[in-house]
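help with this.
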Amino acid sequence: MDKVVVSAGEAVADIPDGATLAVGGFGLCGIPSVLIQAVLEAGTKDLEVVSNNAGVDDWGLGLLLGARRLRRVVASYVGENKEFARQYLAGELEVELTPQGTLAERMRAGGSGIAAFFTRTGVGTQVADGGMPWKYDSDGNVALASPPKQTQEFDGVTYVLERAIVADFGLVRAWQGDRHGNLVFRDAARNFNPLAAMSGKITIAEVEHLVDPGDIDPNDVHVPGVYVQRVVALTEGQAADKRIEKRTVRTKGR
């Protein structure tokens, strides 16, 4: 089945207001920037985003934040995005902060048909006990806090139950992909992309290099096409547009 869609705009056109999006990337590395821009241009709002972080103020998911298109974010950290922090603390955005490894496993579990799993991470903290601020009011008071989670002992060790994440749509970026949706990621850009692809009911992949079926060695496939419903081939300019989250340089001559 040829899954190639003509444009990013067409690929995201049926994402409705209020949808949940699992978005790949780490910082700005490997983010589906073209698809995010297409969602922005479509005017889609009230979105819940599941991603490691929310980009920066002027790129990636930060664009949707700045346009007030997000109502809720499930992430590991606020990171470099000042607007993300401002909206959260001002009571304008609901945020569920989740340990990074737990977030990754929740997304993987969602794509594997696993409803929930037990982990030691977070035991004895607000992650398990509840009370973590999800949303503040305009006066800085906690308006919504996380509920307590089920815990259970195995071999004398306490674990906490974490629910899997299944998103309405998954948005990812791959280095290489074929027309059947088989994807290959390059180096650190692999990060959360395979997990976001797995957890989306409908996954859309923007690919830097589109090839024909059979051109990718099956042993090199990171995400099989069964997880991907739409493929968008990037132009050379779109593929090359990769920003650096924080640049550190030394003084000349040192």
